[in-house]
Amino acid sequence: MAKLESTLTNMLLSLGGIALVASALLGFAYQATKGPIAEANQRILENAIKLVSPSDLKESKLGDMYMLPGGKDSLACYPVMDASGKLVVTAISTYTDEGFSGRFKIMVGFAPDGTIVNTAVLSHAETPGLGDKMDKSKADWSVQFNGKNPETYKLTVTKDGGDVDAITAATISSRAFCDATDRAYTAYMKGGRHE
Amino acid sequence: MDIFLIVISAIFVNNIVLAKFLGVCPFMGVSTKLETSFGMTGAVTFVMVIATTVTFLIQNYILVPFGIEFMQTIIFILVIASLVQLVEIVLKKVSPALYQALGIFLPLITTNCAVLGVAILAVGPADFSLIEAVVYAAANAVGFGLALATFAGLREHMELANIPKGMAGIPIAFVTAGLLALAFMGFAGIA
Amino acid sequence: MSKIKIFSKGILKENAVFVMLLGLCPVLGTTTSAINGLGMGVATLFVLLLSNITISLIKNIVPDMVRIPVFIVVIASLVTVLQLLMQAYTPGLYATLGLFIPLIVVNCMILGRAEAFASKNSLVDSILDALGMGLGFTLALTILGAVREVLGSGSVFDFKFMDGDGMLVFVLAPGGFLGLGFIIAILNWIKRNKEAKAKLQAVEINTKKK
């Protein structure tokens, strides 16, 4: 087949036709991957909730998610019950805009009295090798929050007069982590369910 | 976010070329002469600000309301590609002098990932308002220009230096860029 | 050009990263570790292969004047499909590579191969070209990622062989430039040595003949 000439009709037909086929293909791909993407996100969420629950909790039930106001955005809260239906931990997805490379999101689990059970990083763009040490898969830094109650435990880095040891050479990321945790704590104590 | 913080962060702390690695191709390609680096910066600033404004409006008034955010990549690149063409045509008619200066750089901009990168980042997680997004784009363009001009100045001097044969040309340019990036890391302290 | 040559030229002789200096943004931005470099390389290979196939198939129905817009539409659609697939099946890698996945659209290597090769050659040749170029690109990213990971975090492919942190600067932005600069310098040095040796041999053969 000879190559088409660059006449106006040919150009319009060819460009239009290809754009049409491309968008049809995209629509199809979107429909096909919609389910798996939702599933993948759900898996990540459930995994994070599990990470911030007590590790000895064998059987658990996920309660209804509710939203709390916190800063510019609202925070999603996921209550986790044990087998008897008693509230054990509330996993709160929180964020900070104070990060070194903009916003990052973490999940914090609170016992009904506000004690921090555990934390997990959901998404971040902090510097590899420095700020990303807040992620448990990289370093044990965030373990220091576990079992602390922010009522008596000051959620700022020691440099600012708080109780949190900052990550070496990543004070900004550490401050941001505290900011996110504090946002979740304040919101939870103000409006969260405690039983 | 504070406008002032956005500007400082985009120009120095998170410099688009030296910290974010966007627009490295033109950074390496047109930085042999100080003069061409100014031309490139002018063209990039022009397109980056307009493109970010347009894509920001498209994202918030078309893609999000209709729930088709997954079309972001293809829509944004088409907007940028058509904008570059449009700017070229308008510039040719309105200001031949400016076209003379920026003309040859315009076609290169479509594949400059700094433009698409900034457009995507501006609608990203930082939650900018329109004004903040435009300021962000302009500040990034300035950051791009700063990195490019500094680097071009260094390379002009390097032509006179005695460089080991294996390192001459591209390798020493990369090493210089690395040292420049190291210097820019010092700005992180002021944030 | 023989089929083998079409395939192999992209891996070393015309390596997109080390020799042609194309697609540098993802090369520097995603190679903080070997596994990230490999992931980015494979993602790019995927888009390059499909784009070369598509463009080689439609080359006759695309008039010359609109070819660049058509190429961009094709590549951008493929990248969007890749984004959807990665979100569904490799969400972790998708989160790590972040911005650089949509930026595959503006990787000059892909548009370059479409324009310089696929739009002029047969389907089979275009596939071979994409595989060679893509593998070369992947190889370059993995090598740079491995070098930076070894020097910066004392591990390779997440396998830790050294205590402590290593030289952090190699994981950070400057290390990308430094690492790539030195790798290219070493390759240049090897090439020059080889050429010098070949010249020497040629001279020896000539003198023996006499």
- Biggest chain pair interface: B-C, 42 and 44 residues
Given the C-alpha coordinates, what overall shape of chain B results? globular
Shape, per Cα inertia axes of chain C: flat
Sheet having the most strands of chain B: none
Please give the domain count of chain B.
1
Helix segment count of chain B?
Answer: 9
Compute the CA-based radius of gyration of chain B.
18 Å
pLDDT averaged over residues of chain C = 86
Give the strand line-up of the largest sheet of chain C. Answer: 1-2
User: How is the biggest beta sheet of chain C arranged?
Assistant: 2 strands, antiparallel
Query: Helix share of residues of chain B?
Result: over 70%
Percentage of residues in helical conformation of chain C = 55-70%
**Residue fraction in strands of chain C:** under 5%
Low confidence ranges of chain B: none
How far apart lie the N and C ends of chain C?
35 Å
Strand content of chain B: under 5%
Order of helices and strands of chain B: HHHHHHHHH
**Total helical elements of chain C:** 8
Mean pLDDT of chain B: 83
- List low-pLDDT spans of chain C: none
Span from first to last CA of chain B? Answer: 14 Å
Can you lay out the helices and strands and say which pair or pack?
The complex is a heterotrimer of chains A (195), B (191) and C (210).
Chain A: H1 8-51, E1 60-62, E2 66-70, E3 73-82, E4 87-96, E5 104-110, E6 116-123, H2 171-191
Chain B: H1 3-13, H2 24-29, H3 34-66, H4 72-94, H5 96-102, H6 106-109, H7 113-122, H8 130-158, H9 170-185
Chain C: H1 3-8, H2 24-29, H3 34-58, H4 67-89, H5 91-97, H6 108-118, H7 123-153, E1 155-156, E2 159-160, H8 173-209
Antiparallel strand pairs in C: 1-2
Q: Can you tell me about this structure?
A:
The complex is a heterotrimer of chains A (195), B (191) and C (210). Chain A has one domain. Chain A has 2 helices and 6 strands, in the order αββββββα. Chain A has helices at 8-51, 171-191, and strands spanning 60-62, 66-70, 73-82, 87-96, 104-110, 116-123. In chain A, strands 1, 2, 3, 4, 5 and 6 form a 6-stranded antiparallel sheet that branches. Chain B contains 9 helices and no strands. Chain B has one domain (3-184). Chain B is an all-alpha fold and 191 residues long. Chain C is mainly alpha-helical and 210 residues long. Chain C has one domain (3-209). In chain C, 70% of the residues lie in helices and 2% in strands. In chain C, strands 1-2 form a two-stranded antiparallel sheet. In chain C, helix 3 packs parallel to helix 6. Chain C starts with a helix and ends with a helix. Chains in contact: A-B, A-C, B-C. The B-C interface holds B 18-25, 28, 70-74, 76-78, 81, 110-113, 116-117, 120-121, 165-167, 170-175, 177-179, 181-182, 184-185 and C 21-29, 68-69, 72-73, 76-77, 79-80, 83-84, 99, 102-103, 105-108, 111, 169, 172-178, 180-182, 184-186, 188-189, 192.
